[in-house]
Predict the 3D structure of the following.
Amino acid sequence: MALAEEETGIVMGPRLPPTHNRSLELIAEYENKKAEVIFGSNDTSIYFGYTNNMAVRRSVMEQVGPFERRSRGSDTIFIRRAVEALGCDVVAYCPDMVVRHGELTSIATYYNKVRTYARYRKNFSHIMKVRPLSLKERLDSFRQVSRETSVLRSIQLFGLLLVGVLFWWHGGRS
């Protein structure tokens, strides 16, 4: 278990859709691969948070907590405070700590969340800067997922991600 490591104070895990949905499963594979890359890096500027599959040691909460009262973004602010204070090793990604995320019921729900995250990221950027992944970093995650699936599913994922870029752009402008 990831919390068995003494330096680990926060564990993040993969999130899956609540029901079988090919499009959401592809998106989840990509998002989980991206999270695995981010939480395995030593670049604090790309760390973010999501509370729907997070475990936090009490000692870390006492050092860098509590979560700020915000409708969105407090999980990322918390994670960033933790890695800035304690280093990247405080966060571990545990691929076996899986949850089914009940909120993501359709691809439309996913796109609405993308737009919402872009809007809130813009709103809390004065508090904490989070560097978005570069195109190369995103393509690396895409390639890793593509190696594990068929060509047709890779094309489908690419299309889904392109639409997601449009929703992100729209959210960041509003």
Observations:
- Residues 2-173 form one domain.
- Strands lie at 10-12, 15-16, 54-56, 91-93, 99-100.
